Each structure stands twice: as C-alpha cells, then as structure tokens.
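User: Small ask, check this?
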Amino acid sequence: QMSQFTASQLAKTSWALGKLGHSEASFLAALADASRRKLPDLDGQGISNLVWSFTTLAFREAVLLEAVALRCVAVSMRGFNSQGIANLCWAFAKLDFEDEQFVNAIAQQAVHQVAACRGQELSS
C-alpha cells in the first residue's frame, strides 16, 4: 500500500519511525524502496528528514542513498537549508556512504550558506 503514499507522506512516516525507534527491517526496506521511487517529488527538508530517519534507525539502504546523492547533485542542493545540509552530511558520514559528486555539491552549497548557520549546524 505504500505505493499509494505521496512523497511527503513517505518522508513523514519515515521521520515518525525514526522518532519512535521502529526498525523492523522488511518494513523499512519497503519504505526505502517506495521513497526512492518518489524522491523527485521531495523537497530538501523531506529528503534530509528521510535520510535522517534511516540513519537514526541504523538502516543503511545503499540504493536509496545512491538515489539521494544523485538527486542532490542533479538539483545542485537547491532547496536545502543549512540544517538539511548538516543532517545529510551527518547521515552519510554515520552510514559510511561516500559519493564524490555528492560531497562536492554539498561543499559548494555549504559555502553559500555558512553565514546563515548557527553554531550547532556548523558542528554537526
């Protein structure tokens, strides 16, 4: 039934699961797959919340992370605020997922937003 969820509903569901600590693997795998398919419909906050939730649950879904990295590069990180950028950096580092183009896109956008960052965002 997850195919009927909107991208926003999927992101909010994953965020809620992260907050609750619900980590049933088969459900998370289905959620990751559905979310990957609707990734183009998510804004920066939705993407960062989605990745945050899977990272919080220690659920490393490489196909989803690759899709997120590609999406971020494709939009040159437009639509991501400083907190979203910090969350993505934390999540990719925590999950030990590396993508050079993604890191370059994050770095370029971060340079533009450093002035707007609060102390916690700079340290995350």
Notes: The chain has a mean pLDDT of 89.
